[in-house]
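job 3f2a | input accepted
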Amino acid sequence: CFFMMRITVNRLPNRFYPDFKRVIIRFHDLGAQRTRDLMLKVIEMDEVIARQTLMQTLREFSKRHRNLTRKFKHHYREALKIVGETLPELDEISEDKKLLIGSYFSMEYAISSAAFFNPSIVESPDQTGLEEGSKRVIISFRATGEGHISSIVFHTGVIDRNGALSFEQTGHYVDEPEVVKRHTYDKALIETKLREMGVEGEIVRAVMQPLKETFIYGELLGSALEVLARPSLSEEERRDVDHIVWVADSHYRIEFSRDTHISERVIFPISYTERRGIEDARFVRFTDDDGKVIYYATYTAYDGYTVLPKMIVTENFYSFEVKPLHGRGTQNKNLALFPRKIRGQYAMLSRIDGINSYIGFSDNINLWQQPVKIQEPKYPWEFIQTGNCGAPIETPEGWLVITHGVGPMRQYCLGAALLDLYDPTKEIGRLKEPLLAPNEEEREGYVPNVVYSCGSILHNNHLIVPYGLSDTGAGFMSIDIRELIGKILNS
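job 3f2a | predicted structure (491 res):
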């Protein structure tokens, strides 16, 4: 880095890097004709050979996955959807052959074989069995595998009274959740979101008009299928109908089994809008006015072409609700929710123009309009862009925001700023120099010269900041909060 570091930054010894051994089972889509041909081969197999082939597969992979046969059954049903009713012989085949077919349409996917980075950290809902002065934490990571598809994974650890961080051993398996789509949709919100995406006109009215002011996913899908059945539809109109279904498809609830360790849970892309990745989740422990604690995470869904800002809601890290965010204040990336309401409203940081930091206020956590610009790139190390690195942290002196700046050679550095506690549209102070820049060890990676965080935590005057290492691995640093705030106030 080109700058003198005057704040004492303690890089902790904890490191995470890509791991080839963390695998899930995904559906192996072979296309319509190959799917049909493969099914015919299994149908014609000798029953004894089919059973032997299935048992050999189970022997080889059952130690690597829970409920392997359940996955095979699910993928058999997915393959059935592809061939439709073209193979009536499937009605007569044995359970072994159904499972065998499912195994052919299954594949292992290493969720973090390419990268394991951009972490956030929150206090765990479980604080039992700890030594006095310690705190259990949950750290989320962006895990990236083949094809650069990103998902969210978790680890849990403990910060002791002195700020040292230790992690629990990871579980043996990796599990995806059960997906539940029983969401009730608000018609006006869906129509607003479609307008933001530029999807409007007669075709939208044709799909939406038959629906009530609130509706469920199946009702929308039924209306969309009726419109798609019209022979006169143009390709552009068909794409618009697809977009309507995709927006609704981005609402879902997922549930993990209670017997999974948190390190075994992976939130892998589910809806079409996130089929190319779930990026940079910023978790925050939110305390409502009545004292209830809810965990929120803003993240970016990516379909390969466009980004869709979304939010995860959970109370226990077993059951999660996922939904899109609406309004001008949610455009682009870099959304970070404050940990409590301010003057009766939710507050959230954003970077709607890709360059400057903004703040928005809302009575509705799903709808954000009219954000206010609060920070612009000011110093040479952040001239290209500035933004937040996770939820603000409340201190007596103000809201502490860990920031990022991009400077020469697209180098990402971490910074820090203070916002007024009662009116966070006002910046009290900002570090003139970076808090952290990539050192020689950290600057090499998939995207060189990047340190980046998605959320920090304060414990016993120790600010613990997890951060990504050049879009490849993750590290942690500890800073004395009094020293940091003193430096900001005197900058």
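job 3f2a | The longest strand covers residues 277-287.
job 3f2a | closed
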